[in-house]
Amino acid sequence: MIRRLLFLALACLCFVLGIISLSCSDSGADAKLPKLPPMGVDPYPGLQRSDVTLAIELSDERPIRTIFRALPWQPADSEYAHSVAEKLGVVGEPKQEADGSYIVKSELGEVEIRQSVGNFDYTPSVPKATSVSSAQPGDDELKAAAEAFLSGHDLLPQHARAVSVSYNEYTSRRTVRIEDERLTPSLGLTPFINVNFEAGAVSSVGSRWQPIEALGDYPLLSEKEAFERLFKDKGRIGIMTDKAVTISSVQLAFHVTGNQEEGIPTFFPFYYFRGEKDSQYAWVPAVPDKYLEKPPQ
Questions:
Q1: Which long-range contacts (CB under 8 A, 24 or more apart) does 55-60 make?
Q2: Element holding 273 (H helix, E strand)
Q3: Co-location of 206 and 217 in the same domain
Q4: What is the pLDDT of residue 254?
Q5: Contacts of 259 (CB under 8 A, 6+ apart)
Q6: Tell me, what's the pLDDT at 215?
Q7: CATH assignment at residue 261
Q8: Looking at the domain assignment, is residue 24 inside a domain?
Q9: Does one domain contain both 205 and 224?
Q10: Residue 171 sits in which domain range?
């Protein structure tokens, strides 16, 4: 009997020590994560919970996501301008403009380097043929062609992939947007390259590709917790002004915030709630407050 009681007491002690060890481990991991800049969100205090209903079931799971920060833009020089232009077949002497940008021109096209590495525009004299098989290719074919074009000219960054195709209703132009796969899905303003097509040929390229670095893996709020914050002035509301709103979907996506004025933004995960109308949406920061720096008073 005494031996059994001692065994139970020892088992209970091991269980308690395990809980304490796990708690300390979690706290230690949290302490190693750098504090993040306050998120710039515009609260919408007029939203009332009674006006919003859910057509979906929200998860109470707390996901973990890697959060990234942009590295400072590196200034471009004549050598870099010449290198990019040469890769695109535009051979000429880089001419520096008053604003610090470089322009390279030839009979085959024009390349403008906008002051920073990864920040350039390219326009060929004649749209460049690709592997696209028809004048009206499908989205997947266009995405593959955009990646192949950049890769073939040694201009496809690591982690870059085509994520969407948009259409210009007034012209025949179709634009493939390429983003960093580590920041997808995104709500915009993340590093990108746009490859424009006309009749299946590349008509121009616009690159705004800023390198990023990982800050750490952060535990996030659950969908349920984020939904509750929506009614505590903790979210950015789009045009969710209808008297009755039914939430039909939720997505975890990245959006830019932080020190944008100095060109070093941080890319935060947000919960993106959507209603049944395109005009009904809301963004809610997914990062718990304990990981954020206190905003200046």
A1: 55/246, 55/247, 55/248, 55/276, 56/247, 56/248, 56/249, 56/250, 58/222, 58/223, 58/224, 58/227, 58/250, 59/222, 59/223, 59/224, 60/222, 60/223, 60/224, 60/225
A2: strand 264-275
A3: no
A4: 93
A5: 37, 265, 266
A6: 95
A7: 2.40.128
A8: no
A9: no
A10: 78-210
